[in-house]
Amino acid sequence: MAEDSLAYAFHKAAILVSAVLSGENLTDRYERMLREHPDWPDSTRGAVRDLCWSTLRAYGRGDGVLRTFLHKPPPVEVHALLLLAVQRLEARPEQAHTIVDQAVEAVAVDMPGFKGMVNGVLRNVLREASSLAARCQDEPEARYAHPAWWIARLKRDLPDRWEAVLAAGNLHPPMSLRVNRRKTTVEAMLDRLGQAGIDARPLTGDAIRIERAVAVSRIPGFEEGWVSVQDAGAQQAAQRLNLQDGLRVLDACAAPGGKTAHILETADVELTALELDPQRAQRVTSNLQRLGLSAQVKVADCRQLSAWWDGKPFDRILADVPCSASGVVRRHPDIKWLRRNEDISGFARQQAEILDALWQTLAPGGTMLYASCSVFDEENIEQIKRFRRRHPEAIVPNPDAEELLRLLPDADHDGFFYAQLHKPG
Ligand SMILES: C[S@@+](CC[C@H](N)C(=O)[O-])C[C@H]1O[C@@H](n2cnc3c(N)ncnc32)[C@H](O)[C@@H]1O
């Protein structure tokens, strides 16, 4: 099978999607596949990636369509291949016959006994395409391509905007750059991008939106550390920390280090970066190296103060907590189908423990910035309300103006939540 064929991309993508259906993380599994195929050109990497990510974004719909035709569940690899083909048929109806042929060729590699079944199901899907689209409108998981519990939570938390948030979660994510203001400016970078034929426009602060995603190798100055790829919403963290030269700063949940780097590009601070996972901590170090920045990187659980804290308080703390990642779901569509509703209270408990531990290390007069990339209230405004009940001395600007704290995902940025927690002097 030719490596540049759709059948090859289907076959490889089906391995990844079936791994997700069996509970694995998509990004980790994709990166492992890239290590197994170091010779793949960008086009093959891109084709496999695009198939998997698009299919998992639309999984609720694909699964709804297939349920109509599958009377008993096929092996997970075949189910994955069918989902990939159904998504592709929806996206490129003009290529229907090639898509069906290539899907049949792909299943023949490892499971030739299923060639007839794949062919039959996909031809049925084609034949009934218009009635299937109408039927999907009646099933929320198929219509919104999100799990039912997720839809119910958003309806409750965002009664006026839940549909817009679900729609944003199904889009291709925007590509944004963070300009390293130590090396260049937004204006100069826009000029250089224009000269390289890359359409871009400024967003707020140091952020630039690339109109059509490109490989970083095409971005002028990337290797030299002039810019990094970072969502514009994530760039709000450094802006909201009110940084000044000379401050002692803690980045408590640092990997892979995007916000760590932005803090260091913004001011000359003494920075400690903590990360629980040793492998992810290495990514902080390598990201800082590319940018010519330095911090003290420590591997530790930030909740266990005796393991890492020397007792000297911090002027600023960034608590970019582990969360559901429901605000960045279009970048990690597997999480929609891997998470369970019960996981959210588990995250909320962990976040509260992190806040309580770190609060002890904050200097009087200092600020801790709570950050999550969730769109669920339990991890956001409700978390802050509970924190204020446990720590009535904490001053929280605008606690009742949720709009100031919440960034809902849209065409320009992902979904984030930020709350400043001041300790009285
Ligand atoms: C949302 S991510 C941080 C993203 C990062 N701030 C950035 O902008 O690149 C959360 C990180 O916290 C780490 N983590 C989770 N629990 C932790 C804990 N108790 N102590 C320290 N790090 C933790 C996770 O391994 C993960 O890398």
Automatic annotation (TrEMBL):
Which GO annotations describe the biological process of this protein? regulation of DNA-templated transcription
Active-site residues are C373 (nucleophile)
The reaction(s) catalysed by this protein are: cytidine(967) in 16S rRNA + S-adenosyl-L-methionine = 5-methylcytidine(967) in 16S rRNA + S-adenosyl-L-homocysteine + H(+)
Q: Does the keyword 4Fe-4S apply?
A: no
Tell me the compartments it is located in.
Cytoplasm
| Function recorded in the entry | Specifically methylates the cytosine at position 967 (m5C967) of 16S rRNA.
Q: Which family does the similarity line name? A: Belongs to the class I-like SAM-binding methyltransferase superfamily. RsmB/NOP family.
Stated name of the protein: 16S rRNA (cytosine(967)-C(5))-methyltransferase
